[in-house]
Sequence to fold (347 residues):
Amino acid sequence: MNPKFFLCILLFTLQCQVVSNKPNGTQLESNEFSEWAGLSNDDPVHKREMDASWNKLITTKDLITEYLKQKDYHPNVKTVVYPFSGIDVLNLFSFFPKCQNYILFGLEDPGYPSKYSELSEKEKSIVKSGIRNLSDHLAGRNYFTYRKMKEETKKKELNGAYPVFVAFLKRMGKEILESKEETISGKGIIYKGFTLLLYDTKLNKKESLTYFKIFLIGNEGIPGDGLYEYFSNLGEFGVFTKSAEYLFHGEKRKDFRDLLLKNATFVVQDESGFPIRFFPEESWKRSMFGRYEKSWNLSGAVTPENQPELIKLSKDTNDQILPFPFGYGFLGTKDNRQSAVLVFEKK
Fold:
């Protein structure tokens, strides 16, 4: 056989093998991903403004990372769930950098698959404007407000959270290996979302990030409703939540709250997450970073429970003020003197 002909056959065979082994879904580092993130030179204004907000965001991320190195903080979980997350991947990955699976849910439409390539240049500029507006919004306070997220992600051009997630993850040094649609089927309802398979270029590890749109009205978390089966099948996991409007205070969302806590072994939150009464000292190691004085009565939010145990924990800990904004304590004082990170580790 002619050596050149044999080489062509071999190369063709190898190429076919590579193609046939590709997983389902979007399998590429698309140029539009870099465009959304402001990492290309195609849109100098978008790039400049994304650079400005992400300089602030990465500074906050580095502060959190260095701060946690000084603490007794060891979130040894493979999976972490972030209720009421919005698009806050920066805090999630800062507090849980070594997880394999990140599962978030919020009120924003998934927005996957994106039809960005079909948009006009004017429409594409609206998408990028929404991404950088949300980036700047997060940089200013280290949390999102639902009003701002709804304002931007509801625009028909942006059409959901997917482009914002991708832009933020790219800015954090993560490659997007694959995107695929996800659904959870419940009783008369389908919860829509997507999964991103990622490769962290700084930590040299593969990860998955899954996001669902889930609106908890108060009767979720019972067998047969889809959510019960999905979260029960995760096994043991960590939970991260902040700026959560006290939605797990009171008893309206008791079933879903109990569902999450059933398999939770490591919980990181501000005081607006789970009340401390669910973490008795005989079962949980309880830590507080920063300081707590009171909770906040937010317009339209659940009335927070009275938590004298938090005041006692803060006094016993007598920790220094956090060097970064975290939760509603920053909202109330603007100087962090009432911001607290609560860490509950199952014994």
Q: What stands out?
A: The mean pLDDT is 90. DSSP finds eleven helices and nine strands in the chain. Residues 25-215 form one domain. The first helix runs from residue 3 to 20.
